[in-house]
Fold each of these.
Amino acid sequence: MQQEISALTEQLAPAGADEIGQCIQGLMRISESITAANPVEEYRLSLRNVPVYGCAAPM
């Protein structure tokens, strides 16, 4: 049971800069409205309530 809780906790953790960067490298489109010097940081702020699982590429 503890393993399942740990796995769910990881999946539901907020997406960080690494996960957002992986999404962008995985062909997530950067909107033309994003004018920040660091689009990863801009997306991190925008997606701060999206869990890691929500940023994962579907298999």
Amino acid sequence: SSMSRRIQPEYPRIPCITPSWDNSPRCRQRATVFIESSPALFQQWAANTLAKLKNSRNIPPILFINAWNEWAEGNHLEPDQRYGRSYLEALREALRSVDGG
């Protein structure tokens, strides 16, 4: 949620969301780890970001999602054994909530 509250720069910046992140195997002490990430939090982040895009005149209606299958950093939309298709379904619901159905 802290990512969605960041002050936006004066120039257009295309937002990026991610289901999760953990680069501790590669970065050790300087790692960035999303703690307690979940499909529900991802859906909320996606919906908030999509709503901002929809209501903005200054940002192109483009959203980057990182990533489909970045397994090395625990960052993937691709179905897995723990959550199944939940992240994909969360994205679908976020899109529906902004599009009205």
Amino acid sequence: MQSSADKGKNTKEFAIQFDKFVNSSVHVKLSGGRQVVGILRSHDALFNLVLDDAVETLTRGDEPATTRRLGQLICRGPCVLAVNPVHGSMQIENPFIDKE
């Protein structure tokens, strides 16, 4: 049986803190080239995400991007490559590409 002093020692802290993004819009990049924007409603330790009002952006080569509404979406953790907040971030030029 654990004492009250030992209970705090077994808690794990995750490197990625999604709690601050709950109920805000996020951009999720998935394996296979899929990209989704939606409102993060929930997440777990396995990186599974639940998004509401999700909209997928499809890009294929040089064709113009198309979007489709998905509604509520569950993104499986192994498929998630990146998660960015929609608000509070900005797109910059790639500093590693030669401009010449």
